[in-house]
Amino acid sequence: MQLGAFSVSLNVKDIEASHAFYTKLGFSPLAGDISQNWLILKNGQAVVGLFQGVLERNALTFNPGWDQNAQPVGSFTDVRELQQELQGHGIQFLAEAEEGTTGPASFIVVDPDGNPVIVDQHV
């Protein structure tokens, strides 16, 4: 099962302070809009999303159809196919992608320790 590009999505209290901190660690902006309280930063292959007032808690995020630079890849497993496979394994969903659609969609599952896992397809 290929889930796509991986990042950690952080629920931050002060996006400006978090941005300054991660910049000092060598991260640079990849996407997002700090004025809208979200920013995606990258250092090498490591990707960190900063979200102020958007997420309830930190989450693991996977993006089918994207590489680590948020660029489309040629071949990938659609989020709805991933969802069906996980449903077949008895995984419970917090949110589901709408079946019978194409293009962008997402689902959320929660790991045994309560950590949200977001699978968010943008293509």
Characterization of the model:
With 123 residues, the protein is α+β, with helices and mostly antiparallel strands. The protein has one domain (5-121): 2,3-Dihydroxybiphenyl 1,2-Dioxygenase, domain 1 (Roll), CATH 3.10.180.10. The protein has helices spanning 15-24, 79-88, and strands at 5-11, 28-33, 38-43, 46-51, 59-63, 93-95, 105-110, 116-121. Strands 2-3-4-1-5-8-7-6 form an eight-stranded mixed sheet, with helices on one face.
End-to-end separation in angstroms reads 18 Å
- Tell the overall outline: globular
Structural domains: how many: 1
Strand content: 35-45%
CATH homologous superfamily designation? 2,3-Dihydroxybiphenyl 1,2-Dioxygenase, domain 1
Remind me, CATH topology? 2,3-Dihydroxybiphenyl 1,2-Dioxygenase, domain 1
What is the SS-derived class?
alpha+beta
What is the count of DSSP helices, taking H or I runs of 4+ residues?
A: 2
Number of strand segments: 8
The CATH architecture: Roll
What value does the average pLDDT take?
A: 97
Rg on CA atoms, Å? 15 Å
| Relative helix content | 10-25%
Q: How is the main sheet built?
A: 8 strands, mixed
The poorly predicted ranges are: none
The side-by-side strand order for the widest beta sheet comes to 2-3-4-1-5-8-7-6
Report a brief summary of the structure:
The protein has helices at residues 15-24, 79-88; strands at 5-11, 28-33, 38-43, 46-51, 59-63, 93-95, 105-110, 116-121. By secondary structure, the protein is α+β, with helices and mostly antiparallel strands. It has one domain: 2,3-Dihydroxybiphenyl 1,2-Dioxygenase, domain 1 (Roll).
